[in-house]
Amino acid sequence: MAELLGVAVLGAGHMGADHIRRLDQLVSGARVAAVADPDLDRAKDAVAGLDGVTVHADPLAALDAPGVEAVLIASPGPAHEEPLLAAFERGLPVLCEKPMVPDSTGALRVVEAEAGLGRRLAQIGFMRRYDAEYRRLKSLLDGGGLGRPLMLHCTHRNVSSPPGFTSAMLINSSVSHEIDAARWLLGQELTAVTVLRPRPSSDAPEGLLDPQLVLFETDGGALVDVEVFVNCGFGYQVRCEAVCERGSARIGEDRTMLVTSAGGAREEVAQDYLVRFADAYDREVQAWVDATRQGRVTGPSAWDGYASSVVAEAGVRALESGGRTAVELAPRPDLYADLSR
Amino acid sequence: MAELLGVAVLGAGHMGADHIRRLDQLVSGARVAAVADPDLDRAKDAVAGLDGVTVHADPLAALDAPGVEAVLIASPGPAHEEPLLAAFERGLPVLCEKPMVPDSTGALRVVEAEAGLGRRLAQIGFMRRYDAEYRRLKSLLDGGGLGRPLMLHCTHRNVSSPPGFTSAMLINSSVSHEIDAARWLLGQELTAVTVLRPRPSSDAPEGLLDPQLVLFETDGGALVDVEVFVNCGFGYQVRCEAVCERGSARIGEDRTMLVTSAGGAREEVAQDYLVRFADAYDREVQAWVDATRQGRVTGPSAWDGYASSVVAEAGVRALESGGRTAVELAPRPDLYADLSR
Amino acid sequence: MAELLGVAVLGAGHMGADHIRRLDQLVSGARVAAVADPDLDRAKDAVAGLDGVTVHADPLAALDAPGVEAVLIASPGPAHEEPLLAAFERGLPVLCEKPMVPDSTGALRVVEAEAGLGRRLAQIGFMRRYDAEYRRLKSLLDGGGLGRPLMLHCTHRNVSSPPGFTSAMLINSSVSHEIDAARWLLGQELTAVTVLRPRPSSDAPEGLLDPQLVLFETDGGALVDVEVFVNCGFGYQVRCEAVCERGSARIGEDRTMLVTSAGGAREEVAQDYLVRFADAYDREVQAWVDATRQGRVTGPSAWDGYASSVVAEAGVRALESGGRTAVELAPRPDLYADLSR
Amino acid sequence: MAELLGVAVLGAGHMGADHIRRLDQLVSGARVAAVADPDLDRAKDAVAGLDGVTVHADPLAALDAPGVEAVLIASPGPAHEEPLLAAFERGLPVLCEKPMVPDSTGALRVVEAEAGLGRRLAQIGFMRRYDAEYRRLKSLLDGGGLGRPLMLHCTHRNVSSPPGFTSAMLINSSVSHEIDAARWLLGQELTAVTVLRPRPSSDAPEGLLDPQLVLFETDGGALVDVEVFVNCGFGYQVRCEAVCERGSARIGEDRTMLVTSAGGAREEVAQDYLVRFADAYDREVQAWVDATRQGRVTGPSAWDGYASSVVAEAGVRALESGGRTAVELAPRPDLYADLSR
Questions:
Q1: Cys staple from C230: which of A51, B13, C161, D189, with CB 3.0 to 4.6 Å?
Q2: Which of C253, C265, A260, A77 is CA-nearest to residue B260?
Q3: What is the pLDDT of residue A340?
Q4: Judgement on whether residues C156 and C101 belong to the same structural domain of the protein
Q5: Is there a contact between C192 and D322 (Cβ–Cβ < 8 Å)?
């Protein structure tokens, strides 16, 4: 396996630049072959010092650049549909950052295009599935020793929200991770959503409904509750407790070095998702490179990306209406039969 | 303070017998002066070996027995109203186990009778207010260092439910503790309740809706969610996380001796509320005896007992309807002005 | 059991006053009948507001005061021998604070006097034996499920040492608790001691060898190491890990409410032994009162007090010499046959 | 940086095969160019499926194979000296597994040879320096916020010892990790060692002195105690608590998913060092590849390998003699001036 997989990276912003660094310095078996960004200077900066990389303003040009064998899409969500469909046409494997396609109509077009090919090409960037703790929980639930899962209690907290973050984004940007994680952990589709809104924190920007308590029902009769609080002020915390018939399991506790000094016994809390999930991103991209080099496609599918978009849209409607909102999914193509991979 | 407070204990069942033992063997400054139970043999058994105790079938006779200066009511809830009113007539301080009076109409009569006296005589047995961890949390919230509380996440689990336990009792017997604890911790009244019902555990008795997720709204704009699961199979767990504007605090983690052996690192989980809250019961009764001997009445009031009954009734209606149910309280008499004692 | 046990308390300093409060307000079944202190004003202050207490400068006068049925000795260690022997002469049960008698020659005289009576009258105040965590550990070790104990790792830390605290006192005052706890947990005698001295903390008073690492060997082949650090600056920490053939068990971790806020996840550390072991003191005195009223003597014996003094003396010699020092105990009278009560 | 670093791996046993897999599949920027093992079949098996690798029985032949730019030595310790000196002659950077050279005389020859070159070529495989928790602790100690370190309490436990494991190997194989970690964390040399031997566990093989308590003194006046217990039966545990003047810090607690079910709250314990330190090995080799490609040598030095051998030899003598044994190091060449890298 001496040949390195040539990857075109679309998007050279925060996330794209991080993936370029990861492909170059951490991941075994791949190299950056092309990069595309409307801001050409940013694209050039992101690949400074790398050899054999072509730089493009047009994502499709990057797909067609010399040496490109696979695509990593890290541009903003609304820009994903076109290169996904283009990659399908070219038969190129794709790792596409979440959200796959933010609006569910576009997401369904991607599902239908891939289903039309009759084989998977896309892996969606739900990196929690590659986190060691989430995998341990998944494995425990699948093992069945605790019986059927009845409830998931989830927490999703950020230090502060970036400028322009809206109440809807608590659901379609933040909680979208829990939407995928819940579907994957349970192997069930989400069927309804309700959003409860306590009086907002006075530390949240004016007008932002933060925190929220988001409640999902599933087609297996389970309940999922998510506290999402993006201006909690103290850290990045992602926790999940699965309550089963004969036991419960918790992940995501803050567990680092225990320091005892004046003021008590103290453990650091991660400040940023790139810290908390750094290993998950590394494993995700390595797994994608490994599978791609072996001609396989694994991991979260375009259907997972589509379902996540539909649920998030229902969540935003539920936030607005204050009531319970049903989730309506299109029929699932056979290509995506197995939900609990 | 050489004289011991003479206490009439009403009810000699599980709880009554435990309080008799506590008054005799653990609590300083009190003695059991009389005991009443319709089952006279049970009453006699409960005070075997104690001197100077009279035994009665009729609770009111126990109130009038020689040496009785205070009353501890530990009979079944529906039997509480009569002796409460009788104690008020006699000016006797009362410690009344929860529920004060299960139906809110009767509970309101007790409130009005005490308010008519113009002074408090009753303390209601919400013993969590005397638990060291709950007090620490209350003190932290009152200190204000974490800002305003936004949400409480609560867990209430039992190994298994006793025979005859109904779906409504998950709310009016189990969650009633969280109802009081939430009101006390937040210093706010609960204004609405919604009950979500996942598919029941297959280990729960046929027909029992177990677990449930109970959601309360408060007049201060906070949210309280309670997982109640009375056939969890593994232990008695009562946890609470308060999420505030600038931090969160958790109590009720399982924390005993850490044993590491084949199978992993392990900590025992309490099996029974009398184990988990043994100290709280001791402190509650000691505090009541101490206050009574000094002519004072402290702790949870008849209003707290009334409000708990009203909220629990609304919760049972919400369980049946599946929808959000408003809580309607009578006007609060001035006697009970301060909710956050 | 209506009659309260009349107790003479010797010593009205910090510890004596605390025991007076405990007997009066917390312990069931006892009352303070007499108090003695060379400083009569201090004695009077300590019993202000209590009825039926006589106040004495002479401890022996307190033993003979009206209503005295038992004695609690809380005066300084060197003053213990005389009232212990006097109590034995009068057949009075005694609870004697540690050290029973600081010099081992005097301690042996107490052992011999009690052994001469042919029955136990003294309980020594090693209160850790009444701490819930220590009892859990003792019970686990006695159960044998983890096999034979091989090592105990102990930590004993204080915020700061009081004025006049000497290097020897780290052993004969602080570590004396671990000496008794190790003997009790293991049911073995300590046979040798070595003291290692790292370079002292710059926060320790000039000339104080603080911290120290004290190593004990036992007649059962176990090892006990104790870190003693009395100017650690941050809290009062007493921990113990028992390493057995098939597992280990730890107690004394800092475990209170978990508060997460800017700066990390934090738990309070107790600042004072009266906080950490408040319950142990309460249980100790209650157990002594209960046993005494039933005509029994239980708990740590005069032999335990003697053995502790001998080991502590050997420890101080080991500190001075830098080498391994053997512990030489007198033959154990039959009265004290069972070490592992 | 398109060119991959060509590495010769010496030794194709358990550890060598693991490093070959790591270089091929996980590490970015390197490839296996040659492999040597006296057992040629084993060497061939270890590189099955890899392109461009030559296979050798003689390690020096592997050093001279085409494309070899660096060497990773994973053969048994006694076979390390020759290829280390040969790599120095050829100017090849080396990553050498621990022990660098087991006997201190040979180790000193390696130090002198490298010092003679006037520049570092060797990095020694003390992988704990690359473990995230150890690095956090090192960074905390170096920051100085807790004051000067006074003691390290270390635990090193294995499920069971492999066949042929001797009492001396508890020190020179197991504790050698703590020897390096202590030197690195403290930035101090170890000056004396004492070994205490409790009665062995009955689960240890006949004649094996297991567990042991190993005590080190340092030239900075700190103390290091290590419990080493290689037949603890339950897991692989490596813990370290640093006690400083103004606080303590602990790493290596067992912290995974918390599962609560019948029997209590439970966390898994790692069973194997390749699990506990998998990330550390990955980071170590990646760091070595990265530095080598940039023409730099970092990480633990030949001096660290030498000092570790000297201290381990003193430890084995201390185990045999039962007494305190001084550690005598040769003068440190200037090349290794900075101990606290």
A1: C161
A2: C253
A3: 58
A4: no
A5: no
- Sequence-distant (6+) residues with CB within 8 A of A272 are A159, A236
Best mutation site among A158, A269, A275 for testing chain C: the one with the most C CBs within 10 Å?
Answer: A269
Task: Work out the pLDDT band at B340, boundaries 50, 70, 90.
Answer: low
**Tens of pLDDT, residues C161-179:** 999 999 999 999 999 999 9
Q: Nearest-5° angle of CA D184, CA D188, CA D193?
A: 100
Q: What are phi and psi of C167, to 5 degrees?
A: -60, -35
Q: Which domain holds residue D287?
A: 5-128+280-301
- Of C151, C211, C222, nearest to D151 by CB-CB distance is C211
Omega before A78 within 30 of 0, i.e. cis: no
Give domain status of residue D139, yes or no: no
Q: How many CB atoms lie within 10 A of CB D206?
A: 6
Average pLDDT over residues B29-35: 96
| Tokens at C199, concatenated | 């370079």
Per-residue model confidence (pLDDT) at position B255: 72
**Radius of gyration (C-alpha) of chain D in whole angstroms:** 20
What is the pLDDT confidence band of residue C273, given thresholds at 50, 70 and 90?
confident
Q: Which structure tokens are listed for D243?
A: 């006690």
| C7, C68 contact by CB (below 8 A) | yes
Touching partners of D (3+ C-beta pairs < 8 Å) = A, B, C
By the 8 A CB rule, do C27 and C17 touch? no
Question: C230 and C323, same structural domain?
Answer: yes
Supply the Cα-derived Rg of chain B in whole angstroms: 20
Share of chain D above pLDDT 70, in %: 99
pLDDT in tens, B93-149: 999 999 999 999 999 999 999 999 999 999 999 999 999 999 999 999 999 999 999
Residue C159 CB contacts under 8 Å (≥ 6 apart), including other chains: C231, C232, C233, C234, C235, C236, C271, C272
Q: Quick one: A240 exposed, middle or buried, by C-beta within 10 A (0-12, 13-18, 19+)?
A: buried
CB contact under 8 A, A254 and C260: yes
Cβ–Cβ gap D140/A52 under 8 Å: no
When the pLDDT of each residue in chain B is averaged and rounded to a whole number, the result is: 95
CB atoms within 10 A of CB A296: 10
Given C237, C262, C267, which is nearest A234 (Cβ)? C262
Token pair of C285, please?
Answer: 């005195």
Q: Which residue has the tokens 């801001």?
A: A39
User: Which CATH number goes with the domain that contains D92?
Assistant: 3.40.50.720
Distance CA B61, CA C218 (A): 63
Cα distance between residue D308 and residue D178, in whole Å: 9
Q: Do residues D151 and D257 share a domain? A: yes
Chain C residues whose beta carbon lies within 8 Å of the beta carbon of residue D203: 147, 245-246
The type of residue at C72 is L
Over the stretch A143-181, which tens digit does the pLDDT of each residue have?
999 999 999 999 999 999 999 999 999 999 999 999 999
pTM of the predicted structure, to 2 decimals: 0.94
In whole angstroms, what is the distance from residue C134 CA to residue C128 CA?
7
